[in-house]
Write a structure and sequence with these properties.
Elements lengths: L2 E9 L5 E8 L4 E5 L7 H14 L4 H11 L5 H9 L11 E5 L1
Parallel strand pairs: 3-4
Antiparallel strand pairs: 1-2, 2-3
Amino acid sequence: MSCLIVGRQVMTKYGKRVDLLAMDVEGSVYVIELKKDRTPREVVAQVLDYGFWVRSLSGDDLAATFSQYNDGETLDAAFRARLDQELQDDLNDSHQLIMI
């Protein structure tokens, strides 16, 4: 499966930072949280909070975030160039929370 990184250290509206925000070819959004040591309960709660935030993001929000974290490049152009697909209209219909 291929994913496009939307942003690194993406600031949520709650003042927290998501390590990686990504999107797959179907427009599903991935919150990826990277941890070095064992994952305590607080990290699980943190990722669930990110899931609550990410589900509220619209396609316009994702495009703006991508542009902000990728030097003004558009999400449409990056999607075509990196994933060889047209950007779906129905972005963020589903999302995945991943802890590594």
